[in-house]
Amino acid sequence: MASQIDHPSSWYAATANRSSPLPPLQGGARADVCVIGGGYTGLSAALHMAEAGLDVVLLEAGRVGSGASGRNGGQIHSGQRRDQDWLESRVGLDDAKALWRLAEDAKALLHDLIARHAIACDLRSGLIEADHKPGYVAHSHAYARKLNEVYDYPHAAPLTREEVREMVGSDAYYGGMIDHGGGHLHPLNLALGLAEAARRAGARLYEQSRALRIEEGGKVRVVTAAGSVEADWVLECGDGLQDGLDRRVDTHVMPICNYIAATAPLGERAREIISNGAAVADSRFVVNYYRLSGDGRLLFGGGESYKRGLRPNPGEFVRPYMLKIFPQLGDVSIDYGWGGVLGITMTRLPFVRKLSPRVLTAAGYSGQGVMLAPYFGKLLAQAVQGQLGEFDLLARLPVPAFPGGPLMRWPLLVAGMSYFALRDRL
Ligand SMILES: Cc1cc2nc3c(=O)[nH]c(=O)nc-3n(C[C@H](O)[C@H](O)[C@H](O)COP(=O)(O)OP(=O)(O)OC[C@H]3O[C@@H](n4cnc5c(N)ncnc54)[C@H](O)[C@@H]3O)c2cc1C
């Protein structure tokens, strides 16, 4: 996807920490592990393996962080993409608790990586989950209490309509909850920081080096336009942008496009939009998610598209979603607009698999990758070293293939997603 090759014209790119382009792979290389994809999953995998003394080559089709990891909303959620009620009903209480603990470990790893590698990515705490329908509020309050009591998580608290209104300058919500353990950060700077840490640990990172095919024999060979890597292991970490490389992943992970707009700096008005500096995600199926940037802009994510390639004019596309929540911003200009591609799965749980004895993948975090993906990269790194405990728990998750196979999954996805998007408006 040509538009994904370089960093987008986003507010993130405009405020990125300095990073020099890395060379493309030229000629034949040999490594213990070849990682495909320079987002959080691949970079964290490369970092952890290099720290463990493995010889790692990472191939990135564009620039590191040019995929979802450098374009997302930067929101740090707790738990999995599905809530604990859903997980308990599908995998039982024990596995649901294990998945919650895993997500908490992922959050701790994220904080640890940022601290240990001194990654300047403007990490802040607080995530408000705002209900756009009155009927959702009782569930949000019960859910906050459940997290407190059943999951020993003291950081979730219910919010009444008035409390949400004090924090968020919009009449669009009826209540919700606040997660003081959630938060937000500058996503591209996180990716660039992980890349630098991996490089310093000894991983060899190549940009503009798309993996075109994977040849499996005794060893595995990954072929790019200008070279190849022979390795004992291959980690497929391309998420939604990897579409077309490996049918075994394509049947379970689908790319969808999501969009963000950044307003001009709001100055004094910023505190009227979000008074406590938390991130906000609402209860719509096509979620509105937003937060203030360090320089007082509203970064507002809203709207999706379900076909290959990003829409033109993303800022204009997002603006009506933003004005529906904040009509008072009608006079404010949009300075930046961009889109990105993320991988989703049928059940919205991550797809983690041993695809063959020497090829592993982790993908499809379905909008929860800021917190989950670095941890899943670490799990891939551990699996390569024979530690399979949590990898096996995740490989058991119900993540069925999309109906229709690689070709027919597109029209079926569009039909399904459009139906739920329509329900948001009812
Ligand atoms: C607009 C948007 C908003 C989002 N908001 C949030 C949010 O607020 N909170 C949250 O938790 N999550 C959010 N997400 C999801 C989150 O960004 C992803 O889950 C996460 O970044 C996935 O990381 P990754 O490393 O697996 O994939 P990516 O970051 O997409 O990295 C994959 C990389 O692989 C490369 N690649 C693909 N194919 C090949 C190949 N054949 N050869 C070489 N390289 C290849 C790509 O170029 C890309 O750089 C959002 C995503 C988008 C797009």
From TrEMBL:
<protein>
    <submittedName>
        <fullName>Gamma-glutamylputrescine oxidase</fullName>
        <ecNumber>1.4.3.-</ecNumber>
    </submittedName>
</protein>
<feature type="domain" description="FAD dependent oxidoreductase">
    <location>
        <begin position="32"/>
        <end position="382"/>
    </location>
</feature>
<keyword id="KW-0560">Oxidoreductase</keyword>
<dbReference type="GO" id="GO:0016491">
    <property type="term" value="F:oxidoreductase activity"/>
</dbReference>
<dbReference type="InterPro" id="IPR036188">
    <property type="entry name" value="FAD/NAD-bd_sf"/>
</dbReference>
<dbReference type="Pfam" id="PF01266">
    <property type="entry name" value="DAO"/>
</dbReference>
<dbReference type="InterPro" id="IPR006076">
    <property type="entry name" value="FAD-dep_OxRdtase"/>
</dbReference>
